[in-house]
Amino acid sequence: MWAAVGPAWGENAAFLDARGIGMTERMLELAGPRPGDRVLELACGPGSVGLAAAELVRPNGKVVMSDLVPEMLAIAEARIDGTPNVSTRILDLEEIDEPDGTYDVVLCRDGLMLAPDPVRAAREIRRVLRPGGRAAVAVWGPRARNPWLGVVFDVVGKHLGTTMPPPGVPNAFSLDDPERLAGVLTGGGLADVSVEEVQVSQVVASADEWWQRSSSLAGSLVQLLAALPASDARALRARAIEAVSSYRTEAGLEFPGVALVAYGRSE
C-alpha cells in the first residue's frame, strides 16, 4: 500500500516538510538532540525530521533515517544530498533490528499510529535507547479537528456505504486521544511521558489541489479510489470539494489541524 504512494510522497516532500514544521520543531525541542548524539528516525518517509536533527548533532553525531518501505526510504536517500552524518536503513518500528542501547534519541513523526501494535513499537523504542535517552513522537489529533483528511474519509465512506477507514485497521487517527497515546508510551516502558497539542493549519491554493494531494498521499485510499469507475470518481471528487467549501478564503482553502506530540525517556 505505501509502496504505491511512494512517488506522490516524493513529489510532495517539500509540502510535507512545510506542513509538519511545527511538529518537527517541537519534537526536536523535547528530545533535544545535541552535538555527538546518535539519532534514529523511524517511519521516516521523506526524512524531514531526521534531516533537521542532523543539523543539531554535528560535528560528531550521527542520524539514521529508517523506514520499512523501500520506496519511502528511497525518497529520504535522495534528499540526503551528501549530508555526511546521515545514513538510511530499512527497519520495522515494531521490531527494530538494532542492539539495545544504541541511540541517544529516537524520533517518529506520522508513523506510530500506523503500527498494528503500537505498544510493541514503543517497547522497541525504549529498548534501543541508552539509559537516559529521549524519544519524541508525533501523531494526528482527533479526526474532527483535522478536516483536511477527515472530510476525505467521510465522503469516501458515505459514497461506499461503509466506515472509512475500516474498524481495527491502523490509520492516521488511531492514536488521536492524548491519554491513549500516553498509555502506549508508558506501556512500552518509557518514563516521564508527556503529550501536548501542536496546531497544524495548512493553506492550499484551490480545492482541486487539496483533493489531488490528499487522495494521492493517503495510503489506505489510493488503490480504492483508483478502482472506481470514472463517473463515480468524478462524483466523489465533486462531493468532497463541496464538503470543504466552508474553508475557502481569499488565499484558497485554509484548513485547521492538530497533532499530538509526545515525549518519553529511557530510565
| First-last Cα distance | 36 Å
In helices, the fraction of residues equals 40-55%
Per the CATH scheme, the topology name is Rossmann fold
Report the C-alpha radius of gyration, rounded.
Answer: 18 Å
Taken as a percent bin, the fraction of beta residues is 15-25%
Structural class: alpha/beta
Number of distinct beta strands? 10
Give a description of the structure:
This protein has helices at residues 6-11, 13-19, 21-31, 48-57, 70-80, 118-128, 147-160, 178-187, 207-217, 219-226, 230-243, and strands spanning 38-42, 62-67, 86-90, 103-109, 129-140, 191-199, 202-204, 248-249, 252-255, 258-265. With 267 residues, it is α/β, with parallel strands linked by helices. The protein has one domain (6-265): Rossmann fold (3-Layer(aba) Sandwich). The strands form two sheets. It has a seven-stranded mixed β-sheet with strand order 3-2-1-4-5-10-6, with helices on both faces. A three-stranded antiparallel β-sheet has the order 7-9-8, covered by helices on one side. It is globular and about 55 Å long.
Provide a brief overview of the structure.
This protein is 42% helix and 23% strand. By secondary structure, it is of the alpha/beta class. It has one domain (6-265): Vaccinia Virus protein VP39 (Rossmann fold).
